[in-house]
Hints:
two-stranded antiparallel sheet; 334 residues; 11 helices; 42% helix; binds NADP nicotinamide-adenine-dinucleotide phosphate; alpha/beta; TIM Barrel
Amino acid sequence: MSFILEKRIKVADNLYLSPMGCGTWAWGNRFLWGYTPQRDEELQRVFNLLVSQGVTWFDTGDSYGTGKFKGRSETLLGKFSRDYRGDHQDEIVIATKLAPYPWRLTPDSLVKAYNQSAARVGRSIDLVQLHWSPANYFPWQEKPMLEGLAQLYHQGKVKAIGLSNYGPKNLLRAYNYLLDRGVKISTLQIQYSLLSTHPFVKLGLKELCQQLDIKIIAYSPLALGLLTGKYWDENILPSGVRGALFRQLLPAVKPLLYTLKEIAQNNGKTMAQVAINWCICKGTIPIPGAKTLQQAQENLGALCWRLSAAEVVELDRVALSLKRQMIQNIFQTG
Ligand SMILES: NC(=O)c1ccc[n+]([C@@H]2O[C@H](COP(=O)([O-])OP(=O)(O)OC[C@H]3O[C@@H](n4cnc5c(N)ncnc54)[C@H](OP(=O)(O)O)[C@@H]3O)[C@@H](O)[C@H]2O)c1
């Protein structure tokens, strides 16, 4: 019996997403997330739990897993979907992101990349997003990539098209370009959390997306785990790049962690649940990553309730007062 049944969100005529998805960057990435195949059984349990509870959509990317783990996240999602039997079985949605690698220069090369992703997943992919825009460093590549997305849509290979890491100027240009080709952009994926409000607020993406009826997908909604409160002590941090980043951020972001903790306690929730719920209250669709069954279970508790308006205002106030925010993705455009 599933107990998480919030209304699904329509993003295109035949595509609906649960109000929270699951990000799977860590399901194959060694460099930042220390992935090893020993984790696969637990990841399958994560997948099964989420789907059974109505969180039926998963965000992946053809760059999630490189070298000998090339495309691992897509491959795992394909296997987990095929193996799954249970509630919401027919509602599973896979969204991938195709990277505009420098060797992908033509529309055909993007279509070929899609075909490789679909082969790894073992079926067609529902939502295809361009992972980032090459506009900042190789603007000539952008139109062929958008053209490739249009071809995927018109060939009926995907249900909807999305973009990621686009700023408003660039988004509007891409939107009009695709509209001229009979394709409407359905989603925009950006870094959005209490520690990353920049593109959404300062760049004005919120208003533009409302105007263009584009749904915003919030990636890294837990600020890579920092907002869960488990990395509170500078001496107990994850290894590698994340640890170095958290060590720099922690002194400046403690006021936010205290506020999150207080609001969580008042609601009988955890900090992670409040941080995710805040993204939902802002009208975005968050995709927290989960590596363990316990994390997935906890993140499910972000659904079926909402922070009060006053709590959202208080979180906004503290977040805005911080001297530091999460670093922005180098591929985010204006
Ligand atoms: N479009 C883009 O350019 C882009 C960029 C980044 C991410 N994304 C997408 O967004 C997804 C989510 O972002 P993210 O994975 O970067 O970061 P995130 O969701 O902010 O953080 C996920 C990490 O936080 C920890 N965590 C999750 N739930 C927890 C819980 N309940 N309690 C304690 N710790 C918990 C886990 O790491 P530990 O256990 O190791 O702490 C987990 O891997 C990605 O998987 C990917 O699909 C897209």
